[in-house]
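BUG: 3D viewer hangs when loading the predicted structure for this chain

Environment: internal workstation, default settings.
Expected: structure renders.
Actual: progress bar stalls at 90%.

Input used:
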Amino acid sequence: MERYRAIPQGYMTAGAVAKKMGVTVRTLQHYDREGLLSPSAISEGGRRLYTDKDIIKLHQILSLKNLGFSLDVIRDRLIPLDTPAGVAQILSEQAGIVREKITHLTELLSRIEALKTEVLEMQSVDFKKYADIIVNLEMKNSFYWVIKHFDSETLDHIRGHFDKESGIVFLQRFLRLQDEAVQLQADGIPAEGERGQRFAKDYWALIMEFTGGDIGMLSKLIQMGQSDELGQEWTRKQAKANAFIEPALGAYFLNEGINPFQEAIT
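Structure tokens produced before the viewer hung:
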């Protein structure tokens, strides 16, 4: 009791301030070390002592911190300001930071919901596939959902042959060729003609790049492409593309003497 009676009138201990303001004594000590809020006095026993003026300053610090400002910004940029325009400028900068965070969190929420949908549609827990889906969501690959239809061997093959950058480039080339096939078919371009055969050569080169000449991988791709589990929209577009791709490749194989299902691709 003697120790508490020794506190001068008009001063409060760190414990009393912490309780009053809803913070911890450790927080007050941290603010002191950071040069934000030093006690107005030290008692004979070495206790930090604060005044009402200190509490007002602590209230200011806590309020600004609740707006997302870092302690460094509060100490070095905000508190020294002495004009409304200067304060408004810092607030505008902070508003921009908050908007960026909102955008990021909105995108993150969208990825979480998308992954949740894929998880519920898969037949078993597979964190390797989850990781692949997350990476493709980060890359804004709208075909991330196809991953759940690949088996482990195919996914291992993809991981071994493509990184993020090359994977995106490859997908873009594939989608361009799919769109080109649909357009060539709509324009009535002969699959066995010059343009059709140029397309077939490019398309076959893309397949060989993906499979690395692995016939087993080629068979899996064909089976997957024929699956009715890929959704109506994908199936419809694939059917339109295949209406040109299949005869174009057939003519290309015949002209080049290629047997796509030989044990070794030459």
